[in-house]
Design brief:
The complex is a heterodimer of chains A (about 325) and B (about 475). Chain A is of the alpha/beta class. In chain A, about 50% of the residues lie in helices and about 5% in strands. In chain A, α2 (about 25-50) packs across α7 (about 130-135) and α4 runs parallel beside α13. Chain B is mostly helical and about 475 residues long. Chain B is built from 19 helices and no strands. Chain B is globular. Chain B starts with 5 loop residues before the first helix and ends in a 13-residue tail after the last helix. The chains are: A alpha/beta (about 325), B mainly alpha (about 475). The interface of A and B includes residues 14 and 155 of A.
Amino acid sequence: MKLLCKIIAVVIFAYASGFLLTVTFNPEVQFWTKAIQQRDQVIQKIHSEHPDEPIIYFTGGSSCAFSVDPKIIESETSLHSVNLGLPVASGREYILHQALRRCKSGDFLVLALEPDVLCYTESSHLPSRLGYALDANNSNPFSAILSSSGGTLKNTSGWLSTFRPGSRYIMTLTGRALSGKGYRYKNRDLRYNGRIETSIKLKQYEPSGAKTLIDLTTDGRAFLEKAASLAAKKNVRIAYSLPWRLTSTDALEQTRLANQKILFKISAFMPVLHDPVNGAVDEESIYSDSEWHLDAVGSRMRSEAIASGTVEWLQAAR
Amino acid sequence: MNFASIEFWQTLVACFLISRVLIYFAGRIRPQAYETTAKLSLIGTALTLLAVESWLTLVAFLWVVCLGWFSLIVIHQKWRSSSKQLAIIILLIGQIAPLFYFKYWDFFFNEVLKLNVHIPSVLIPMGLSFYTFQTIGFWVDSLREKAPRPSFIDYLNFASFFPQIVAGPIERRDDLLPQISNTRFRFYRENLEPALPWIVLGLAYKLIVADNIAIESANFTVNPNNPWQVWIECLTFGMRIYFDFAGYSFIAIGLGLLFGVKLTLNFRTPYLSSNLREFWRNWHITLGSWLRDYIYLPLGGRKVRWWAINLLFVFFVSGIWHGAGWGFLVWGILHGLGVAACGFIKLPRYFRIPSIIITFLFCNAVWLFFFERNTAIMWQKATSLINPAAYQLSALKQCTAIFSGAGNQISSLLIIFFAIAALTMEALGLARNKEPYHYLRTQVSCLILVALTVWFAPMQEAPFIYFNF
């Protein structure tokens, strides 16, 4: 029995240290925790100074975090705006959940999710590891599970795997720690009201090729329906905006046409913000460290483009 | 019955607890029913674990095992010899029929005979090859030794003992039956200390090495004309299959010990063998001894002039047993040729280290025929391996192109490091004449392996590779 007790003690120690490695000492979690804390401070300030004024929130994957400039939205709409974009690896349910948690009655929420999570794969309903880690780091570990928009509880093996680091993660963490690189994004990349901006540029981009007609998955439709329903329950107006993806020039028109058809299908669940480029752009120079992340110039372009769409939506909503 | 899955342990614990309650009350109400209840509970647990896999797994198992039982009945009948022989042949065909249907139908009728007779595509019932051999061995031993027929409950427990039913070891009547007959399906606390290190070692082998290699090697891009890349592919598969299968066997041993049953060790550091004959005495030991006792020796063994042909036939059967495909046949025959060559070539003792290296490289190279299912690419890779002109410096410089990126390369190297560390510990134990895997089963090693398993096991579960056979 002594050996069994020792084994159990080692298992507990290993899981606890795994939790610390994947959450507390995870540079990615540390950065996005800082971003979330900064955003929450902004929201708190707005609520205390302007308690009766609605806020326009933008949420989605990292394409949202890098592309929507709340300053431009504010100047066009005369309403406060906060960017709540997170890495898409947080899971679409978590991305929605953490935004709705911050909304109060009368607020506006723009869902700027990458269409891949609605159209290509059947996504898991489970809150992702990153989502759990972000909540855990913000002293709210069960928020993602207990919230009705957070997804369903994991099974036992899911729980046992959630905070285990795995070989890839340990090697990456060790390599980056030894080389002094740390996480790709730094605190200096945090911008006004939640936007992220990096000066990193890729040497070579891989623009998206021509898209054939795609459709929302059954899962994707259910998610959009749930998003609309949960927003309505909180008296939050919700709309969708397609992120801008770097697309090859010869595939531009076909992709815009395919995207337009998807936007039409999404419009059955919620309003869609007008976008003159329908989510496809062939200009490499406005992108930063990926084909989804806009640089400062690109962010301004996109924000100006959707600002007018946002104004139209706000007028229709009122 | 994936020992590395949480669901297996949950089901096992649930079945065990329910069984203990039933056994307790049976003992209180009717003391003479205690033993029977215990044995029935063990059968119930095994059948439940099989049914959880799939109904087909359970039905196929019951079919094979019941026909084995009828064979035992026939053996003990006072019939005419010719009638008995005919009945046994019919029952043997019936026992092998599911194996032929699920595993060999497509290969035999469509690839060999080119008859284009297809059957619905269904997964092979788990463990079919293993328990078919085990039950055939049981009644053949009963016939040879003129041993009395056991009770049906004991026979069923022999056939269905859950730690070893789906991937071995393939146990013999004389080894397992006496232990099973005495089992009361209880937890042997005194066996915890020897059992736990086996279970931990098995899980570590499977989760740290085998599963991670499986994930990383799935991202490999191999140029069939680059022998260095083909070697990397073969060596990683060789590591994967050893750590996967040995890992399963170790967990089976540990589980057996927890319930008071000593199972046969199926691996004894096979990659440190100095020739192929020694390799097959240390790799999948129970299959090798089964083939030796039920095919090789009845054909005359080494006592006949055509012993080499007997040997080739045995390894032909071994190849076929592993899988229905030309690659498996080639793999078996190559091993047969290698083992036969050992009968003619005797190397001096000082050649031991080079012999170990050559045997290791040979065994890993011929895994190519095991895992490569595309015949054209298989021969392309085989050709590049044996073609000296292909071993160019330029090809060596390209060997890292097999990896999909820096992450894949570094993770693969880390896992290979673990594999080498484990093999080094095995070698150390061997060099010091210790028990098999001695240094990997000490308390300190056990605790280190537990921590490493928690940290390095991949997120996704993967089935044991030998479940495919």
